[in-house]
Amino acid sequence: MTDLLAHCPSPPEWLVPWDELARECPLIEALAGCPQDAIHHAEGDVGTHVRMVCEELVALPAWRALPEAERRLVFVAAVLHDVGKPDCTRVEPDGRIRSRGHSRRGAILARGLLWRQNAPFAVRESIAALIRYHQVPYYLIDRPDARRLALEVSQTARCDHLALLAEADVRGRICVDKQRLLDNVALFAQAVREEGCWDRPYAFPSDHTRVVYFLDEGRAPEALVYEDFRADAVLMAGLPGAGKDFHVRAHFADWPVVSLDALREELNVGPAEKQGEVVNEARERAREHLRRGERFVWNGTNVSRQLRRQTLELLLSYRARVRIVYVEAGPDVLFPQNRRRPAPVPETAIERLIDRWEVPDLCEAHRVEHVVRG
Fold first, then answer.
1. Rounded to two decimals, what is the model's pTM?
2. Strand ranges (DSSP E) for the chain?
3. What is the arrangement of strands in the sheet containing 231-237, beginning at the earlier edge strand?
């Protein structure tokens, strides 16, 4: 499988090696023949569009002016920005073609692909964030929650890079509203500059203010939120075999632990079986610690944002100060490490988790630590 980061166009030719990328990367190859709605994409299928986007991107003076490392990650984001479309594309009853959810799906697929290529963690997550939010600049200005969304985006994606990707995405298509979309991208750039998050995350007055702001839509981001914590909680996250148990033993040896693996063994529930009984028991034990104001660790995979949110809402409802510790290992470490466990998780189950894998970010907790091993 080709290393996407190594195939970024370079001067003086700035040539996009599209045929090589499509030949060597199944996710890119799958774009050929995937239909698009003719109103927004009269140029043809997804593969045609993405190739045009890449060519428009490398022609932009602002992209060429970036440092090489930044050019690479924005280019790879352009290559992969629509890889979620084959999974999400549907023909509606009215005959229109839509791909709802393809941005989020594409970010997950790109994360798994780049993880298997051993791309650096920070670069990979920057690319995944650009893919996840690549449509935001088109519609931000029309959203009633535009400010909140802009601040959310800035926590993980560089908005200056996102504006470049969005401009190329518009230029790399044939549609009747191209100028309106380009104007919206320019308005997005103006809005995030005014918020002070053009090339950096929006700076909240405190970690707790940030957490509460993203929980309560009625809050103003600059209004400092009073802190009244009753407990401390650590939420572990990471794929099976990444080393979460080792990290807990090394760093939280004297903390009580609510372990989903231990509960599965206690309740005789396999990792591939339905987990409702395990999660309900874990939540009840967590409540006991929270009621007593005790610090504790919740140890589970927690790889999807939706799954984490259910637990985080419980912890925050008891006024806990929450730290997410995300542990990651590369594929050459993770799979052998999992096989050496006393009770290995079936690799088919791990692959299902990879298919829902979303790395925690600062919109979710007071503190987020990424512990990345080779």
1. 0.95
2. 90-91, 97-98, 231-237, 257-259, 296-299, 320-329, 367-373
3. 257-259, 296-299, 231-237, 320-329, 367-373
Burial of 209 (0-12, 13-18, 19+ CB in 10 A): buried
Nearest-angstrom CA–CA distance, 226 and 291: 21
Question: Is the separation of the CB atoms in 53 and 172 below 8 Å?
Answer: yes
User: What are the phi and psi torsion angles at 23 (to 5°)?
Assistant: -70, -35
Rounded to an integer, what distance in angstroms lies between the CA atom of residue 20 and that of residue 217?
46
Answer yes or no: are the C-beta atoms of 182 and 167 closer than 8 Å.
yes
Residue pointed to by tokens 């809050």: 219
Q: For residue 274, give every residue at least 6 positions away whose Cβ sits within 8 Å of its Cβ, in sequence order, or none.
A: none
Query: Is residue 145 very low, low, confident or very high in pLDDT (cuts 50, 70, 90)?
Result: very high
Contact 322, 312 (CB under 8 A): yes
Residue (of 211, 294, 305, 309) closest to 256 by Cα position: 294
